[in-house]
Automatic annotation (TrEMBL):
Region (Disordered): 717-742
Organism: Arabidopsis thaliana
Pfam family, one: SWIM
Record flagged with keyword Metal-binding: yes
Composition bias, Basic and acidic residues: 733-742
Keywords of the record: Metal-binding, Zinc, Zinc-finger
GO MF annotations, alphabetized: zinc ion binding
Tagged with keyword Transferase: no
Name recorded for this polypeptide: SWIM-type domain-containing protein
InterPro entries per UniProt: MULE_transposase_dom (IPR018289), Transposase_MuDR (IPR004332), Znf_PMZ (IPR006564), Znf_SWIM (IPR007527)
Residues covered by the SWIM-type domain: 630-673
Length: 742
């Protein structure tokens, strides 16, 4: 049997990076060659020098193989395998035999100059960084580990950029250690090199500072542990870095790692401050991305002694989050861990929806439902009303955001529950609404306001649904209802009549509008009659919706602005939502507490109505009529209203709609010298408003301490259904839709 020839892609002098599927090469320097299956390591070296055209006398290289270690039906995960001898080379060359669907192998060369001990600046990340670092970090804190008692063998690992200074300082002929190479303080950037020595850390810092000044560059340094130093360029993408440590054999601070020169452009003086702020904040965000703007401002003041403006801090944090959590495919793997961190620190309730692959350790993302415990506690003090709506998100996968909101005492949207799904359907609405009922609230008599979409109606009308009376009362958003009407009957006149009929609180006006619709288009009237009038018409609502006829999308999605940005992946958007939620709770709680301390009792809607009555120039005439009712009129108008305080009603409709006295009821209370506040619904008290936002959010641990999500497989991006004409995926019949709750 003839010896197998293995196709080999040889890559060098550019970037080795770590991505979703493991390591990969980014650059343009590569060659395709063929290697025999029984090739020895030294033979491979000779062959690669010929392929790359590198000078053996002036350079050497370490070889990293791209080895498949995690093989699934839908993807292959690659890890770096250093090729250093015949055995490791044989392992790489056997890949195409063991895995026939892999047609070739990749070898990455880390080229290093042997003339001055300086690392090739074209390399943007070393294999040692990939083996030990995070795939998301563009800059890492490299802890320089040195053998201070005994010398290391510099030939033990040909791919690591930590160079043994003891070996470099040996005379090759005698084996004796030569005199250390001492530096001048007036170095140029290109004069830094491995084995260069300094009296102490301060002298090293002055040398780095001098080179930075001359080259119009900016570097930051820190002492990682005692007598070990790291310097990096302030520019995140620049590859310049230097590592040094005090060596026991001569007591001097010696450069043991150097990558240079700078690969960035000189910095303009006026741009430096902004770049420095961005660099430092990104370092803080990478460590703990859930810090609020206030926490970052406090940290900045303590560290640098001055206050950073809110606008600058928010903009820089936004950019940092996008850089740290900026990969759409990776974000689905990170998502469960992020939500697990919220669960362990703040009691977040989570429910996952995914499609399992044949290997149950992997699944494609379908959706995630979540609600913060603070919102669940606060909703107990809101009126019994929930508004739900959806929005299509920008971004690679066009995910859908589902939001449920309450209404607080100030008539503001109260964030209650959220979900991100790959599609909106009957199944996803059933899952979302069930999540609200099972995890968020079991209150009886809730009013649910939504669009009249058939998917929602199908879920509401299912047997056993807890969104039916008396557990809940379903109402339509009038805007959505009119829009759906216009799809069937595209007439602006008819649409205006439907809107008038739905929004009026006067029965006579409602009846008149319905007659006009029937007269203009009988089919339109028949279409309206298929829906109960109490679902879309205010006059038949019986006060369930508290006068809320439309879904205010701007207010509903106010805290979710990050989800609308195409350059924000879902994990980054959830982080910003958490930040906005904490800020919203803190601000609302503080404002309500101040009002309470000032002696106020009711929230703005009630106080505004009392002020309107007190400052009004209209004179109301109140006359008693039968059945404990009162007739209210004005001298200049023919209109009259009948007020019944016993059942909190007025023929204007506002009293029963809003559940606090209208102007006519206030006139009756004034006439009878009654306290009008006894007719105000308790949901409007400032005490209730304060309790709504009283729950506090706990700090979220740093990324390094985020716990793994229990029971959730490794999530991959959502599967896009194939077109009807394309063959069905063979695995589709084997998938299992599963839901897991954290």
């Amino acid at each position: 049997m003839s010896e197998v020839n293995v196709p080999v892609f040889c890559c060098w002098n550019d970037c080795i990076k770590d991505g979703t599927n493991g390591i990969y090469y980014e650059g343009s320097n590569y060659r395709m060659t063929t290697v025999k299956g029984k090739t020895k390591f030294n033979e491979l070296l000779d062959h690669l020098y010929q392929v790359t055209g590198l000078d053996r006398k002036r350079s050497k290289f370490g070889i990293i193989g791209r080895y498949p270690t995690d093989i699934q039906a839908f993807r292959v995960k690659y890890k770096p395998l250093p090729v250093v001898d015949d055995t490791s080379l044989e392992t790489m060359l056997e890949i195409t035999t063991k895995h026939p669907y892999i047609k070739d192998i990749d070898l990455y060369l880390e080229v290093e100059s042997t003339s001055v001990g300086v690392i090739d600046p074209a390399t943007c990340s070393s294999p040692s960084d990939i083996l030990g670092g995070s795939s998301k970090r563009q800059k890492t804190d490299i802890h320089v580990k040195l053998e201070r008692e005994t010398d290391r063998n510099s030939e033990s690992d040909g791919v690591v950029h930590l160079v043994d200074s003891s070996t470099l300082n040996k005379d090759s002929s005698s084996g004796h250690v030569s005199k250390p190479c001492m530096s001048s303080l007036w170095l140029d950037d290109h004069e830094f090199r491995v084995a260069l020595c300094f009296k102490d850390g301060d002298e090293l810092k002055k040398a780095v500072d001098w080179c930075s000044l001359k080259g119009q560059q900016k570097c930051v340094g820190r002492e990682t542990v005692k007598d070990e130093y790291i310097f990096e360029c302030i520019r995140l993408k620049c590859k310049w870095s230097l590592g040094a440590a005090r060596m026991k054999k001569h007591g001097l601070v010696e450069i043991i790692r150097y990558t240079g020169p700078h690969t960035c452009h000189p910095i303009e003086l006026e741009d430096f401050k902004a770049e420095f702020e961005a660099y430092e904040i990104e370092r803080a965000v990478r460590d703990n991305p859930t810090q609020t703007i206030a926490e970052l401002k406090k940290w900045w003041k303590q560290k640098f002694g001055y206050v950073l403006e809110n606008l600058n801090m928010r903009a820089v944090k936004d950019k940092a989050i996008k850089r740290v959590f900026g990969d759409w495919d990776q974000c689905f793997e990170d998502f469960p861990k992020l939500m697990s961190a919220f669960h362990s620190s703040n009691g977040l309730l989570v429910d996952w929806k995914y499609d399992l692959f044949p290997n149950p350790k992997f699944a494609s993302f379908c959706g995630v439902f979540w609600a913060f415990q603070q919102s669940i506690e606060g909703f107990q003090h809101c009126r019994p009303l929930i508004v739900v709506d959806t929005k299509t998100l920008n971004g690679e996968y066009q995910l859908k955001l589902m939001v449920a909101s309450g209404i607080d005492a100030a008539n503001k949207s109260f964030p209650l529950a959220f979900a991100v799904t790959k599609e909106v359907s009957t199944d996803s609405w059933r899952w979302f609404l069930t999540g609200i009922r099972e995890k968020v609230t079991q209150r009886k008599g809730l009013c649910l306001i939504s669009s009249p979409h058939p998917d929602i109606l199908a879920v509401i009308n299912e047997t056993g649904s807890q969104w039916q009376e008396p557990w809940a009362y379903h109402r339509f958003c009038l805007n959505h209802f009119c829009s759906q009407f216009s799809l069937v009957f595209p007439s602006l006149y008819l649409k205006s009549l439907v809107r008038r009929a739905g929004s009026t609180s006067q029965k006579e006006e409602f009846v008149s509008c319905m007659k006009d619709i029937a007269k203009s288009n009988p089919e339109a009237r028949k279409w309206l009659d298929q829906f109960p009038q109490y679902q879309w018409a205010l006059v038949h609502d019986n006060g369930r919706r508290y006068g809320i006829m439309e879904i205010n999308a701007k207010a509903l999605f106010a805290l979710c602005k990050a989800f609308e940005l195409a350059d924000h992946v879902v994990t980054g958007s959830v982080l910003f939502l958490f930040d906005e939620l904490r800020s919203h709770f803190d601000k609302s709680f503080s404002c309500s507490r101040i009002s309470l301390n000032c002696g106020d009792v009711y929230a703005e809607p009630v106080m505004d109505k009392l002020d309107e009555f007190r400052t009004s120039s209209v004179t109301y005439i109140v006359m008693p009529v039968e059945n404990n009712a009162f007739q209210v009129t004005t001298p200049s108008q023919k209109d009259e209203w009948i007020v019944r305080l016993s059942d909190c009603s007025c023929t204007c409709g506002e009293f029963q709609r809003c559940k606090f006295p209208c102007l006519h009821a206030l006139a009756v209370c004034k006439k009878l010298k009654f306290n009008p506040l006894q007719y105000v619904d308790d949901c409007y008290t400032l005490e209730r408003l304060n309790k709504t936002y009283a729950a506090t959010f706990s700090p979220v641990p740093k990324i390094s301490a985020w716990p793994e999500a229990s029971g959730v497989p490794r999530l991959l991006p959502p599967v896009i259904p194939p077109p009807a004409s394309s063959p069905t995926n063979v695995s589709s019949t084997k998938r299992e839709t599963t839901s897991r709750a954290t």
